[in-house]
Structure formats: structure tokens, C-alpha cells
Amino acid sequence: MLLWNSFHEVYIKYFVTSYFMSEEGGITFETIRKIHIEEKTFDKLAKIPSDFYSKAKEYLEKKKLLVEKNKEIKNVENMIENIFEMRETKILTHAKISARTKMPPENLTPEEEEFFNQIVQMITDRRSNVISNVFKQDDAKKMVKAVFKDDVTEFVGSDMKSYGPFKAENKAEIPEENFKILSRRNIVEEVIE
Fold first, then answer.
1. Domain pair 2-108 / 141-190, same fold
2. Greater confidence, 167 or 72?
């Protein structure tokens, strides 16, 4: 199956990029159909001409001049819309992944690349703002200033950071969970300022 998929991918790419391009550099119905099939068949973005959408528009305008209402025109419009929607979905999926991995997808048109970069930036900004606010608030709520009544050896706090060692009368901020445990053992008191 893997061999067939590889062969099929190479076969489609060869015909899309060479055979089905019109002599004027435009695209044909067959080109659009092959791109549509490739977008439906594969998870990754199909390689399309960088000016695909403008060439598709030119193709439709020429066809509309020849025939008022044509089934082929409606089919082409539907395929172009489907290609756009499938690529948009793939770009959004890649943007979510790329916001974490910093690895962009291949085969973006210039317009799609701009869209992709904007989405990645929005996801990255949102992620860093929300996550940092969540952790800042949690850290601020969970720390307690304490004075130690007895000596305490170094320990790992509930926030996975190291604290201590402490001697009697030392003051320090420690996680609230650790403060509660040490307080029950009468080892610390809260410092009220």
C-alpha cells in the first residue's frame, strides 16, 4: 500500500505540474480535477502553482465567456471551493502544530503562507498569554511567607523546586501545601506583615 501511495503521489504531481498545464501557462479543467483529487487523497498540502487561485479565476472567466450556464463551470467552481476549504483546514491544523514545533508545512502559496504565519502568531501569542497568566496567578496564590521554629533540611516543594535547608528563626516563602504540612507538625508559622 505504501508503494502504491508513493507511486500515486509521484504520478499525480508529474501530471499536475507538466501535462495538464495549458500552453499559455494557465490551468485546465484536468489540472483542477487532479489537484482536487490530490488534496482529498493526502493529508499534506498538494503542490500547486503559487498563482493557482488567480489562474483558476482566469480559467473560469474564459469559460464563462464561452458558455452562459455550463455544468463544467459549476463543477470547476465546486472543486476550487473544495480545494480552498481542504487546504484551509490543513493549514489550520499545521498552524496549531507549528505553534509548538516551529515547523511550517510545505507547498503553501504566498497567500496561504501569509495566512499561516498570522494564525501561528495568534496561536503562539494566545498560548503564551494564557499559560503565563495561569501560572503567575497559581504561583501567587500558593506561596506563603513562613518563619521556621526548628531546623529543617532541604526539601522539594509541591511546585517541584528545592527549599532550604532552614534554621530556626529563618523566614522564607514556601508553597502553601508544604506550609500546611509543616504547620501541622508545628515546625513553621505564617509571617503576617
1. no
2. 167
168: exposed, middle or buried (C-beta count within 10 Å: 0-12, 13-18, 19+)? exposed
Q: Which CATH code is given to the segment(s) 2-108?
A: 1.20.58
Instruction: Report yes or no: 44 and 90 within 8 Å, Cβ to Cβ.
Output: yes
pTM equals 0.57
For residue 174, report the phi and psi dihedrals to the nearest 5 degrees: -130, 160
User: What is the distance between the alpha carbons of residues 39 and 47, in angstroms, rounded to a whole number?
Assistant: 9
Phi, psi of 145 (to 5 degrees): -85, 125
Query: Would you state the CATH architecture of domain 141-190?
Result: 3-Layer(aba) Sandwich (3.40)
Domain boundaries, the chain: 2-108, 141-190
Q: Put residue 27 in one of left, alpha, beta given phi > 0 → left and psi -120 to 50 → alpha.
A: beta
pLDDT tier at 159 (50, 70, 90 boundaries)?
Answer: confident
Map 104-171 to HEC letters: CCCCCCHHHHHHHHHHHHHHHHHHHHHHHHHHHHHHHHHEEEEEECCCECCEECCCCCEECCECCCCE
CB 129 within 8 A of CB 108: no
Coil, strand or helix at 14: helix
